[in-house]
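Could you help me review a protein record that somebody else here produced? This is what I was given.
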Amino acid sequence: MIPILDWQRFASGSDREGFVADLGHACRDTGFFLLTGHGIDQGLIDGVFTQADAFFALPDEIKRRLEIRLNPHNRGWAASGSEALDETSGLLDQKEAYNVGWDLAVDDPRVVAGEPFRGVNVWPDLPGFRVTMLGYYQAALDLGVALHAAFEQELGLPEGFFPPFFTEPMATLRVLRYPPSEGGIGAGAHSDYGSVTLLMTDGVGGLQVQPRGDDWMDVPHVPGAYVVNIGDCLMRWSNDIYISTPHRVLPPKATRRSIAFFLDPNPDAVIEALPGTGAAKYPPISGADYLRSRLDATYAPM
């Protein structure tokens, strides 16, 4: 059972302890929960869906100019069949996607120096696309960082522990389109790479999760709610106290659209066992090195 949690219980201070207890159970059990009361404007969410629809409707020869496999910083368009999230099945994902990252100017010293995941975004020539995507990126980032305040309390960490790790994160906004299909896979079985994922869907089914020792189960749709899941980075950070759970998207019967926000830490953040979590199960690693290792295994050769 995937719980439904009302963020306002924590954000308003009306039931912080109860929310944190419920959050901890979800993070230690399936690693998934639905989040209502998040405060992100529905008009902004609708605007992202509209802009994504306009982009995916462009001819492939135009989208190909923004090909993600030509970009070393994980920005741009991923064509259908260019990714294989399930590294064991041999099935290519039947979806297309578009990635937006932390927005930097072309003359930013980090961009000029070629630092990992410090590149410029690439943009299609669509009115309102850039401003809508960046507006949503900031709103989702604010919510994702705020959620970490609840993680702090649940894990017994000092207040304010996490924000310094997310000042200029490798967070990625990814809009996705899954065409209707009778076979193959929409997105292969995988776990997410970052700290936490915020997923907004359009209500078309297909998303499934596989709790440990259990069968695949459908993730319910609650209008306006985010599907939130723990990523591999936070599982590693928490010394396996929190769970990053495999999930997949089955081929949908109708076109399925979603908006995913993957919150990874700063590139130079050192990911090591959090205080109070016992003997470290993993060696320290930088956020950039960890993300690169996961991305390199995802993309099919061009």
Observations:
- Residues 160 and 233 are 19 Å apart (CA to CA).
- Residues 4-295 form a domain with the Jelly Rolls fold (CATH 2.60.120.330).
- The first helix runs from residue 8 to 11.
